[in-house]
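Record 1 of the preview.
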Amino acid sequence: MRTAPVVRTIGFYTGLAVLCLFAIFPALWMVITAFKRNGDLYDPNNNPFLFNLPPRLSHISFLFRQTNYPIFLWNSFFIGIIVVAITLALAVPAAYSLARLMGHSGERSSIAIFLVYLIPPTLLFIPLYEIVTMIGAANTVWSLILVYPTITVPFCTWLLLSFFRSIPREVEEAALTDGWSRVGVFFRVALPLAVPGITTCVVFAFALSLSDYIYAAVFVSTTASRTVSAGVPTELIRGDIYYWQALMAATAIVGIPLAIVYGLLFDWLVKGFQVELPRSART
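->
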């Protein structure tokens, strides 16, 4: 009986270690492969999890010097920054208005806003492509800048609703009693308290613009305007030749920092999913 807690503890931490190893295995595999030599990677007699030959940086040098990967990185960064700015400019005031100024209708409309986010991109890219072509933005980064907010704004609006609802109304009412305007309360009280949610929205919007493939591949076909998600497969997969080390390096350079940021903001992201039910549903 005394050994039962010890056995449970050992079993718990063993299972946790296995789960963590399973979760980080793709990133670990990418890093190992990125530094492998061709003779080490393609030799079936070598251990794929070890460096049987000394690691080299030649494939990373090839990625930055002999491919358009730096252009893809810059395009992705530029698009992500603009999309984040547009998303915050629209989603933050919309979420605050729904949470504070529209009463019961705002609570119900939050679900309708989230349903817009659930529409699959495969159903939208054809009509959106027609619109992008009509305004002359096809094959430019501006086509993606115009399209991505249709996904990020509804989700971020829904996400920020719970953060604004979690702010006690008494705090805002006290500020209004002291003579502040509604705009002043929004900027001086609501926004500082909703910083965790806003930060989560920034990460989400930037990550979506960085990882999307469907829109990036359909709307942009010129190399100078491609993003990482669409440009890397085109640049590093040439017919039946796969530049595996460079592919893994290109993925790791973008994916690992983004995964770290998501891990640091995981608690805030989960908090945003805790949307309050309308009062009618609670009663």
